[in-house]
Amino acid sequence: MGVSSTMERARQQVIITQLFFLVFLLSLLGWYTSAEQFSKIYYSNGHTYAFQKPFENNSIIISTPATGLADNGTALCLTQQIPLPGSTNVNPDAAGRALLKAPVRVRDYITKEVQSFETMFNFWIQSSNTYLPGEGLAFVLSPDNSSRGGAPGMYLGWLNDSTDGNTTNHIAVEFDTVHNEECGDIDGNHVGVNINSLRSDCSTTAGYWDSGELKTLNLTTQTEKWVYAWIVYNRTGKVIYVTISDRRAKPERPLLTCYLDLSKYILQDEMYFGFTSSNGRDSLGSHISQHTVYEWSLGVGNLSAVNLFGDATIRADIVKPMKFKPILLAVVIGVAVICILVAALVGGLLCCRKYGQNARDFKVTELQTLNSVNGSGPRKFTYRQLSKATKAFSEYTQIGKGSFGSVHKGTLPNRKEVLAVKRISKTSSQGTQEFVAEVSVIGRARHRNLVPLLGWCHEASRGELLLVYEFMPNGSLDQLLFIKNVEVLSWEKRMRILCGVASALAFLHEDWEQRVVHRDVKASNVMLDAHFNARLGDFGFARSYDHSEDASTTNHIAGTMGYIAPELFINRRPTEKTDLYSFGVLALVIGTGIRASGFVEDRPLVDHVWHLHEENRLLDAADARLGAKFSLGEMSVVLQVGLLCAHPDAYSRPTMRQSLAMLKGDSPLKSLQLTKPKFGFSFSLGPNESLKLTNSATDNRHSELEFWVCN
Fold it and tell me: CA–CA separation, 8 vs 13, rounded Å?
């Protein structure tokens, strides 16, 4: 029955393919026009702007002293050329503005949320030995495109003394080359995101990531050296990403990640995009540079980025209406018909072959498990439903990504419930077995500190595995602890989160109908709801047992380095005690603000805290970002419980219920020995069996221990 329904879907897919090509044919017919050939830029609000080539000044509003476009219309000069040495015609108090004539609709018609947008441009801020570097430039979203309101100096041609702090000024991403302490600048070479103010909401020293290393990048140079910039706003994640580089290839990691909901600050439907810059003077002298933008592309909403001017290598497709003659029209029709026939033949063969294979992806027992869960807990969704909810899994709805795949935010039609859809990558190690494990465990378990699983989808025809959760608006604990420019997580919230995770694990270990071992407790798997309550998620590696059943060994070690209990490398047997070790590390991460994989003075996190405990300086491990805003007693308890749970000897660790009681103060702390215990283990091997253990040493090198048992 399953195979026949799959084959029916294959036939439906062929019909859809044919219809697609028919629509394609009709669109070709629609191109038949006698209009003159020109390039058009399409904005999301329906504005159409015709740009002749080369790019002309009447396509953009240029405010003096900006000199407009040079180099045959391919360079936008925002400030005048640097005066020659000895020149008497020097006026450093200058600000240039260049904004599009046509406004762009940035707010959604229905939700009024600011749409996602992306832009790429490159620039050169040319300096000289004669003068100090100019003030810098800014990419702006402005409520108007007038020449008024932009002052020189630290105002970057964007604001002035009276508009700074005004809620109608809106957004700028600044590339600042002067250290103005009155603006809260961190240095004289930084990138910042500014909302209605010269004081940046997020900022960092200019640089770019290269092979895992953050390299400094000077924004201003005397010799020509372009800076490439990418700015992306994701409306779903409410986050702005700013990336820069000294080359055209975009680094994989952004320089600046700034969590801001622009819908709170952009108060009108349409905005003007463009650039501003300025020179100025202060007690140190005149700040004069020539600020030039060479390339610019922009995309808003669901539209791909379109090149506005500059090198064609970054240009997206630009629509060019074409003149069709009858003979050309006949050729187009003939080619389209052939394409339909070929697509029907090839598509039918490929789809049937593909669907026939994927229909057997699940074993019979796995299907039975899913069907049993479907009647009592999470429901089965269709791929079409989830694709529609997430706008075809668009990058604009993506709120997370990892080796497992991606997570997208979505809303089902006619329902107000917001979803988080986990789309498991076809290359992920999480296959059908892990998928079924997660659905069967978290799908039936109900607890206030577990991420609610709303449903699942297995589309055999596409090889898709999808899990549907309740959306957690505050993201993961990992993000709040370690992403720069995010407000420091308060101690009160940290304590509530840690106790919430402990409560969830105690429920899974002792109170549910089966014993559940999570096997991957870590900060990134702790999600936070709207009230910062902890919700433990990602049960792909979970194992469940009857309460009277012993844990079994596994073929591979699951988990994340830094959180994995040492005995797992020996016996490969995940138990509640291995979850306890991971929880202990999590407690230390929350208390210290250091990643589980981090090192302090060449010591791993657990060894670092043990070292401070041995020197009677345990509280020195507290997260410095908290300042004095935490309870000394609670911090001491958290760190001691962390060390107790991360004890090298599994049998010396407390239970999860005992750990929760100690955290809440419902039971006294167990005694913690003065020095870190040595790691001991016992094991048995059959004849001629080999066991190899790789253990991370304190000097961050690796040592191997190998054992042999012979006849």
Answer: 9
